[in-house]
Design goal:
Blueprint lengths: L7 H15 L4 H28 L7 H10 L6 H13 L6 H9 L1 H18 L1
Helix pairs in contact: 1-2, 1-6, 2-3, 3-4
Length: 125
C-alpha cells in the first residue's frame, strides 16, 4: 500500500511563493520568487504523479502527468501546465533579462492554477 499523500509541503511552498510573487521590489525578490516557483512547480507535478499512481495509472514525464491529471480532473487544461513546464525549464537561464521577464509574466496564472490544484486535491483526499 502507498504512503498517504500529504500536501502540507505544497501548501507551505504556495504560501512562500505568494509572499514573494506579490511583493517583488528588486532583483533579489524576483530571484526568490523564481526559486519558489520552481519548488512549487516541482512539488505540483510530483504530487499529481503520486495521486495518479495511487489510482493505478502508469505515469512517465511531466507532460504525461499533466495530460492524465486533466483526465482525472486534478487540473483543467494540460496545455497551461505545459507552458509552466517551459518556463520552469527557462529558470536555469534567468541571467538573461528576456527569460526573467517571461518567467515572471506567468506568475499570476501559475498562482491561480496552483490554488485550483490544491482545492481539487483537497476534495479527493
Amino acid at each position: 500500500m502507498n504512503d498517504p499523500i500529504n500536501i502540507d509541503k505544497l501548501i507551505k511552498a504556495q504560501s512562500v511563493f505568494e509572499r514573494f510573487r506579490i511583493d517583488m521590489q528588486d532583483d533579489r525578490d524576483q530571484a526568490g520568487a523564481i526559486l519558489t516557483f520552481e519548488f512549487c512547480y516541482e512539488l505540483s507535478w510530483k504530487t499529481m504523479k503520486r495521486i495518479l499512481e495511487s489510482r493505478g495509472l502508469e505515469i512517465g514525464s511531466p507532460k504525461d502527468t499533466f495530460r492524465k491529471a486533466a483526465l482525472e480532473k486534478l487540473i483543467e487544461d494540460p496545455e497551461i501546465w505545459f507552458e509552466f513546464q517551459k518556463k520552469r525549464n527557462l529558470t536555469a537561464h534567468t541571467y538573461e533579462q528576456e527569460n526573467l521577464k517571461l518567467i515572471v509574466s506567468i506568475f499570476d496564472q501559475f498562482s491561480d492554477e496552483l490554488k485550483k490544484l490544491i482545492i481539487n486535491i483537497r476534495t479527493i483526499l
